[in-house]
Backbone:
């Protein structure tokens, strides 16, 4: 089930005539973080009515718990300390303060007369049975923020311990969600209320999860109807992309008059759906459809009661739509361009041997969790391919007509049964580690609209709308070669210094900032004018006078545009660096001596002028996890808009370091059901094809007019349709000849071509 009710002996009290005060009680007003399953939100120091202080959330798709309660949205509060797993915008304590009178019909005199009632509730869970918990406290405050009563407590250790567990597809002992509730009379003198959530760890990060926090207040003296909830909430962010406006009105001594209800979206009158009265409530709803990403909107509802004369009320709200990518229309080809004789995926596999330890064990023996480095592995720049390629159709490429639902011998099945092995794995040495799989295909989207795709795997991956491979660091003079690299940036999963790779390539000269070979020389480079405008190579080590992030900051202070870090004497792969320094805002790339780094050093020490390009993949990025997953496989689900029905290129790059491995690629239907891409038995599966044919869209040639007749002609293949107006009823023309002559007349007729 995923739900439980544990109220500590308190009976449930309904929210009759209640007004919700908490903003974003389901923690959905968030923005993306560097971790695809973590969102961040809140303000550092919010004022009254401004919502939560800094917080972060986990997506329910992680399956760290059983499914959440009604109204839980896509995520829930994960009250971790700042910096845990690379997320700095997070806190073990989140709070918000609300006014008891602003936006309600309560007044100070009503509160002091005992005419204000409250209902405080929240849902709690935890990670499996480890016992981490959160305490929620409700504190009523006076005008000067002084407490006017004892705090009201919800949740806590004993509450969490008693929540049952159950099985989901990932864990056999996932926690259910349980609601705790407290009700009472608002104390005299109260003018505000502060809700505080504080997490406590029993082991590891404090997984005291919280969701659907609600503080309802009731004016027992009110006689006219009231608006008790509105979705989207005022000032909500991250809404949609499907936007459904829902407003709930509640009858009091008088009732809502449906004839008086008016709804406006962006100051334009719209026609809402008005439900029959149920439990004294009228629900007003309107589907606005898909709104543009990051667009800001307002809506306003006006309603009156059935008294004579009717008493009118007006409520206004604003919200901002979530950001989401749109596939470029230029990348698509019309339906029918897919090559139906070649269903499925083109799969390239490349496996390398781990680094053999010498006298000194390298830092990175197996492949690092880095998309940029995986691209170099796939390009054959890291070592010979030891994958088993006997079944490949060409070089290292397999034709896979079925689905992407793969697993290795130690992997754990995720969402779907009937897993098969990875193409080409185990390799010729019998190993299942250190490989990368590139899945390229053309997906058929039958209609324009919003779609969701998901990937479940154990390690790094990137899903893009395009088929290109990009190498991050290329030396262009005095010779031309690629240096495999691991970028470090705050927008990369779990990393906490360095700037994002730029969309416009950085072209510049590389200079050696520590030619002595002594890493600590980089700790005082900030005043070196020779580094201005340059890409600076720095030696690094563990320990020393300053860490790697500090070295990079010194180069930045000197005016460097990017930094390359290398560890002298380390024979392993380049690796991720976990230092913390948010001041470093220029790109930082880690390279290794045995993978191009020693060649670069030799060129610089020989006095050569070395020019290079730093770049990134600029294809539309649907989803990614650019780093390791130390906690196992997890779903990463992302949505995007398809501008027109058609066939679009997609590329999924997925790596494997060592240990468990699995990979699933699926779509998510509107009801949350997951369907494997190209599932042959599900008619709603998105179809994949290994090739498509070039189809020229039909376009009209300029029409000609002569002797009272118009000649229509077009280039390409399409069906001619006609209507009496642009917004009229379109139908196929009875004459499909190309060209054709049409008599001119006084009545208007419009034509179009469709694929």
Residues:
């Amino acid at each position: 089930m995923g739900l439980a009710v544990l109220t500590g002996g308190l009976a449930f009290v309904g929210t009759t005539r209640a007004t919700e005060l908490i903003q974003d009680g389901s923690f959905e007003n968030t923005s993306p973080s560097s971790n695809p399953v973590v969102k961040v939100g809140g303000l550092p120091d919010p004022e009254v009515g401004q919502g939560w202080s800094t917080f972060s959330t986990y997506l329910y798709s992680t399956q760290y718990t059983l499914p959440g309660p009604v109204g839980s949205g896509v995520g829930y509060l994960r009250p971790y300390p700042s910096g845990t797993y690379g997320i700095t915008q997070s806190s073990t304590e989140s709070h918000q303060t609300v006014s008891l009178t602003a936006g309600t019909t309560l007044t100070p005199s009503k509160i002091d007369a005992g005419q204000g009632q409250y209902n405080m509730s929240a849902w709690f869970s935890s990670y499996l049975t480890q016992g981490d918990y959160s305490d929620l406290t409700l504190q009523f405050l006076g005008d000067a923020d002084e407490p006017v009563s004892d705090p009201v407590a919800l949740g806590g250790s004993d509450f969490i311990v008693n929540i049952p567990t159950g099985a989901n597809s990932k864990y056999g002992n996932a926690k259910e969600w349980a609601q705790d509730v407290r009700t009472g009379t608002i104390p005299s003198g109260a003018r505000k209320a502060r809700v505080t959530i504080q997490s406590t760890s029993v082991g590891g990060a404090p997984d005291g999860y919280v969701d659907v926090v609600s503080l309802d207040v009731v004016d027992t003296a009110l006689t006219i109807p009231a608006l008790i909830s509105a979705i989207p909430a005022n000032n909500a962010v991250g809404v949609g992309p499907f936007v459904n406006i829902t407003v709930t009105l509640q009858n009091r001594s008088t009732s809502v008059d449906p004839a008086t209800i008016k709804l406006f979206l962006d100051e334009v009158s719209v026609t809402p759906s008005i439900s029959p009265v149920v439990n004294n409530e009228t629900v007003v709803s309107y589907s606005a459809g898909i709104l543009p990403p990051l667009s800001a909107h307002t809506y306003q509802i006006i309603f009156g009661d059935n008294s004579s004369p009717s008493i009118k009320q007006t409520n206004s709200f604003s919200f901002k739509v979530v950001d989401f990518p749109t596939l470029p229309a230029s990348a698509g080809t019309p339906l029918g361009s897919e090559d139906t004789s070649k269903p499925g995926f083109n799969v390239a596999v490349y496996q390398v041997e781990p680094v053999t330890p010498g006298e000194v064990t390298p830092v990175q023996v197996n492949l690092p969790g880095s998309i940029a480095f995986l691209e170099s592995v796939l390009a054959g720049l890291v070592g010979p391919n030891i994958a088993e390629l006997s079944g490949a159709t060409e070089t290292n490429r397999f034709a896979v007509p079925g689905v992407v639902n793969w697993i290795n011998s130690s992997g754990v099945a995720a969402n779907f049964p009937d897993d098969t092995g990875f193409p080409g794995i185990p390799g010729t040495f019998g190993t299942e580690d250190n490989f990368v799989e590139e899945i390229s295909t053309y997906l058929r989207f039958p209609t324009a609209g919003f779609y969701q795709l998901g990937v479940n795997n154990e390690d790094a991956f990137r899903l893009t709308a395009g088929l290109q491979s990009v190498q991050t660091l290329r030396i262009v003079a005095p010779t031309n070669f690629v240096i495999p690299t691991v970028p470090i940036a705050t927008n990369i999963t779990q990393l906490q210094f360095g700037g994002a790779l730029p969309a416009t390539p950085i072209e510049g000269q590389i200079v050696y900032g520590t030619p002595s070979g002594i890493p600590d020389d980089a700790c005082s480079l900030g005043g070196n004018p020779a580094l201005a405008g340059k890409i600076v190579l720095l030696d690094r080590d563990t320990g020393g006078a300053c860490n790697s992030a500090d070295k990079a900051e010194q180069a930045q202070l000197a005016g460097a545009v990017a930094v390359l870090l290398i560890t002298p004497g380390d024979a392993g792969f380049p690796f991720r660096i976990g230092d913390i320094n948010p001041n470093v805002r220029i790109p930082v790339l880690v390279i290794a001596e045995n993978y191009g780094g020693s060649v670069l050093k030799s060129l610089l020490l020989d006095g050569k002028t070395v020019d290079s390009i730093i770049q990134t993949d600029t294809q539309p990025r649907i989803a990614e996890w650019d780093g390791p997953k130390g906690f196992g496989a997890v779903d990463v689900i992302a949505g995007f808009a398809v501008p027109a029905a058609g066939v679009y290129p997609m590329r999924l790059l997925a790596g494997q370091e060592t240990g468990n491995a699995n990979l699933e690629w699926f779509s998510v239907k509107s009801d949350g059901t997951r369907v494997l891409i190209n599932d042959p038995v599900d008619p709603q599966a998105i179809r994949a094809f290994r090739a498509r044919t070039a189809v020229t869209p039909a376009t009209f040639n300029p029409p000609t007019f002569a002797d009272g007749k118009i000649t229509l002609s077009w280039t390409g293949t399409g069906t001619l349709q006609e209507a009496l107006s642009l917004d009229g009823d379109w139908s196929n023309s009875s004459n499909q000849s190309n060209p054709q002559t049409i008599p001119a007349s006084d009545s208007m007729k419009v034509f179009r071509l469709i694929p």
Notes: The chain has a mean pLDDT of 91. The two ends are 47 Å apart (CA to CA). The chain has five domains: 1-215, 223-323, 329-469+620-689, 473-614, 699-754. The helical segments are 108-112, 157-161, 371-378, 548-557, 597-605.
